[in-house]
């Protein structure tokens, strides 16, 4: 019997989520009766809003279980376009809206449709780790540009200009960002767009934490331009992670290519989820989501000063998503080891920086406030005890 072949060479560059190792250990400890405070989880702790669940259950009962068009059902694409008009005052042609299996599906489609082998996608470091893996999957390269608190952990027009190379084709930004929770201000976004377009590239803006902003107005990159990709999702603000539904707004010239690829890779986004999402923009749902947004804001307002006063350095105030990215170099030069010990000794789970890139990851931890205020308070108590022992 011959040996089965090796996996593709590209798999050598696809890294796991290191936090999964930590999560597995947390679950093991929990199964033995230990109390664990979860500050590592990247999804809302709230259930899907009732009107959405009801619409999903109705859809199942009514037999909406067949494939839909690959770009999604026209009613949902129209509802999304309408949402942009009502909430952000921008006119979006529903033809440019493509509904996808999570925003992960959208990212895969954009990379697949645009990135040739050897093409470079420029992105911030730290940032969402899957982005560089999507580029590799398409045969492309990811150029991760180190960013720090001085730019709010975001790319700037100047950084894009300086790092642009012969093979650069796309620039990715995220606002609000994972892991830093920081926003890209509209002027910087417009500047980046100008640089990218002047060089013949395309800009992709990840807005999947849109709606979750605190103390600042909500914006969309579509207010700035329409020759860019905007990626969004029902996962975070709408509390629908497991329904696996997202969308993109694409420049009109790419819609056919994206459609063709979606037909081949996914056939269609999940049908029941699309029907459920039709209730996501109703007044009832939006009222529930606004109440949740306020709760997230109250959690941030508690956790941010609490961590800072313990000695974690969080120089750029996070104004969105549900993450704080903290420099922990006052306590350790190995954030993975710190996170593991914090879990073992005090039962607090946080995400080590090494999940987010190569820019001083060992000096950083991501804290997620996807758990109630009482749990966060308990967590801070345990962290205080832990660093007191160190
Ligand atoms: C910045 C960012 N983009 C995209 C995603 C993918 O989310 P989904 O596929 O659930 O829409 C995530 C998930 O955590 C994320 O943090």
Oligomer: single chain
Summed up, the domain count is 2
* Helix content, binned percent: 40-55%
Largest sheet entry: 7 strands, mixed
Report mean pLDDT, rounded to a whole number: 96
Task: Provide the gyration radius in Å.
Answer: 21 Å
Please count the beta strands (DSSP E, at least 2 residues each).
Answer: 12
Strand order across the biggest sheet?
2-8-7-6-5-3-4
Q: What is the architecture of the largest domain at the second tier of CATH?
A: 3-Layer(aba) Sandwich
GO molecular function, one term: transaminase activity
Protein name: Aminotransferase
Family: Belongs to the class-I pyridoxal-phosphate-dependent aminotransferase family.
Enzyme class: transferase
Structure, explained:
With 390 residues, the chain is of the alpha/beta class. The protein folds into two domains: 9-47 and 285-389, Alpha-Beta Complex (Aspartate Aminotransferase, domain 1), CATH 3.90.1150.10; 64-282, Aspartate Aminotransferase, domain 2 (3-Layer(aba) Sandwich). 40% of the residues lie in helices and 14% in strands. The protein contains twelve helices and twelve strands. The strands form three sheets. The chain has a seven-stranded mixed beta sheet, with helices on both faces. Strands 9-12-11 form a three-stranded antiparallel beta sheet. Helix 4 (102-114) crosses helix 5 (130-137), helix 4 (102-114) crosses helix 8 and helix 6 packs parallel to helix 7. The longest helix is centred in the last third of the chain and has 28 residues, at 283-310. The chain is globular. The site of pyridoxal-5'-phosphate (PLP) has 13 residues, from helix 4. Pyridoxal-5'-phosphate binds next to helix 4.
């Amino acid at each position: 019997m011959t040996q089965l072949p090796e996996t593709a060479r590209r798999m050598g560059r696809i890294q796991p989520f290191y936090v999964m190792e930590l999560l597995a250990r947390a679950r093991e400890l929990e199964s033995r009766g230990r109390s664990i405070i979860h500050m590592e989880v990247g999804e809302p702790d709230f259930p899907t809003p009732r009107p959405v669940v009801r619409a999903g259950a109705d859809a199942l009962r009514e037999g909406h279980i067949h494939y839909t068009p690959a770009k999604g059902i026209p009613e949902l694409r129209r509802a999304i376009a309408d949402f942009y008009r009502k909430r952000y005052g921008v006119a979006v042609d529903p033809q440019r809206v493509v509904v996808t299996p999570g925003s992960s599906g959208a990212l895969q489609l954009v990379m697949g449709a645009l990135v040739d082998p050897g093409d470079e996608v420029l992105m911030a470091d730290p940032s969402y780790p899957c982005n560089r893996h999507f580029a590799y999957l398409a045969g492309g390269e990811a150029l991760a540009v180190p960013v720090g608190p001085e730019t709010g952990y975001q790319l700037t027009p100047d950084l894009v200009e300086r790092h642009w190379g012969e093979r650069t084709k796309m620039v990715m930004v995220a606002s609000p960002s994972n892991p830093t929770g920081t926003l890209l201000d509209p002027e910087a976004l417009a500047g980046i767009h100008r640089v990218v377009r002047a060089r013949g590239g395309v800009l992709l803006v990840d807005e999947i934490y849109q709606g979750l902003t605190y103390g600042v107005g909500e914006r969309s990159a579509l207010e700035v331009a329409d020759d860019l990709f905007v990626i969004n999702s029902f996962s975070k603000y709408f509390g629908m992670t497991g329904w696996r539904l997202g969308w993109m707004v694409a420049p009109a010239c790419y819609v056919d290519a994206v459609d063709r690829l979606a037909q081949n890779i996914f056939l269609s986004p999940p049908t029941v989820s699309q029907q459920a999402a039709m209730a996501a923009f109703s007044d009832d749902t939006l009222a529930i989501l606004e109440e949740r947004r306020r709760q997230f804001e109250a959690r941030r307002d508690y956790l941010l000063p609490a961590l800072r006063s313990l000695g974690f350095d969080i120089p750029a105030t996070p104004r969105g998503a549900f993450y704080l990215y903290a420099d922990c170099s006052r306590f350790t030069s190995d954030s993975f080891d710190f996170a593991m010990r914090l879990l073992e000794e005090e039962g607090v789970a946080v995400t080590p920086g090494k999940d987010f890139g190569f820019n001083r990851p060992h000096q950083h931890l991501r804290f997620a406030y996807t758990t109630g205020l009482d749990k966060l308070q308990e967590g801070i108590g345990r962290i205080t005890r832990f660093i007191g022992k160190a």
